[in-house]
Specification:
By secondary structure, the chain is an alpha/beta fold. The protein is 26% helix and 26% strand.
Amino acid sequence: MVPADTRDTDRLYDCIIVGAGPGGLQAGIHLGRYNFNILLFHTPGGRTHHARHIENYLGINAISGGQLIETGLEQVQRFGVRVEKAKVERVAGQEGAFDVTAGGKTYKARYVIASSGARETIAPYKNLARFFGTSYFTCLICDGYRTTGKKLVVIDRSVNGVRTSMGMKQLFTKDVTFIAQGIKLNPHYAQLLADEGIPLIEGKPEELVGEKTLEGVRLSDGRIIPCEVILGWGGISMNDEYLEGLPLERDADGFKVVTSGVCESSLPGLFVLGALRQGHSQAIISAGQGAEAAIEISTRIVEI
C-alpha cells in the first residue's frame, strides 16, 4: 500500500472511500477503471475479514472473507486507487466540497462513500472463540446453510429466537432445540414451539463443550445440551462515529442511514453502503451497492 504524502491534503480527490469491505472495494474498482483520482481508507479487521466461509458470491465457489478483501485490495490498487491504512475521524461538507479527517490530516473530495461496516457483539461464552465461524454462527442468512442436517441449538434472549428456530427447521434441519436465555416465554410462544416439535429449554448458557468439534452447550445449572452447531445471539454496532453531526436521515430506530436507490444519503454527495445502510447487508449485496454508487458518481463528474 502506498501511503498518502503531505501533498495529498492539498489535492481534490474525485472520491474518498471509507472502508475496504466488499462495497468500498467494488466502488473503488469501478471508479479506478474510470481513471478518477480516488483515495480509500482501510482499517483492517472488519466483519467480512473474519468470515470463514463466503459461499453465495457469484462466480466464487467458496472463499474466506480475508481472501476476498486481500484480492479486492490488489484489484483497486491495480486500477490506480490509493489505499491508506488510517481511521477516518470526521467527515464534513457536502457534494463537491467534503473534508475528510484521518490520521490527523484533512483531505478534500468531491464525493464520499461511507462503507465502514459494523462490529460484532460476541456472546460471553467460554470456549466460543474455538468454534466461532465454524460451529457457532450468528446470522441465519449468512450461515444457516452450514447447519443443514445437523443437530442445532438456537440461543436467543428474546422471542425472536422462536421465529428463528421455526425458520431454521423449515429451511435447514429438523433437529432444532431452542434455549431461551434469561427469559420466560409467554405460553403462546412455548406452544408454537411445541406444535413444531422444537424442544424449549430455559437457562443460561455458560460454556461450549468440545475440543476439536462442538459437542454441546453447558448451562449454569450444569446441564449439557448436546449439539453439533449453534445459531447464537449476537449484535452489531455501526462503525459510523465519523458521521456524527451530519444531517443524515436514519431509520425509525435512528440506527441505519436511509438512502436513495443509488445509495445516496440525505446529504448530497455522501453515499452509504452495506451494514451502515438501511436494508439487508451481505458481501454480494454490498458489492452491488458499491458498483451502483460508483456509476452514479461517475455520471455526475462527467455530466453524462
